[in-house]
Each structure stands twice: as C-alpha cells, then as structure tokens.
Amino acid sequence: MKSMIDIYDLLKRYGTFIYTGDRIGDLVLMEDEIRELYKSQVLDVKDFQTAILILRQEATKLKPKNK
Predict the structure, then answer these.
(1) When you count CB atoms within 10 A of the terminal residue's CB, does the N or C end of the chain come out lower?
(2) pLDDT above 90 coverage of the chain, percent
(3) Where are the domains of the chain?
C-alpha cells in the first residue's frame, strides 16, 4: 500500500465507498473504517499502520498553514 488509491481499493474490497464532498471528512471516515477493519482482524498490523500513515499525511497536506 503506497497511496490513497490503494486505500480506496482496500475499502472498496470490503464494500465501503466514502465520498461526502468534504475531503477532510472523507479522510476521517476512511480512518474510522480502517480502524474497524483492524479491530475485526481483517487487516494485519502492517497494512493498518501504513493506511493510517497515508491518511494522516494526506490530511496534513490539506490543512491550512497558520502564519
């Protein structure tokens, strides 16, 4: 797993489609779904950690920078 597309594909594999029109909101919902998959023991630790890291990096890119 290397990009957001991989995360979309992972979630799609389990029947989860997320699009609210709010990019930050989408990332939060995706993180929640990834956590639920991990808690259900569907994802292994490595995939879970990688997915969370990618989602947080994407969120950081989108947050406005305070000057």
Answers:
(1) C
(2) 90
(3) 4-62
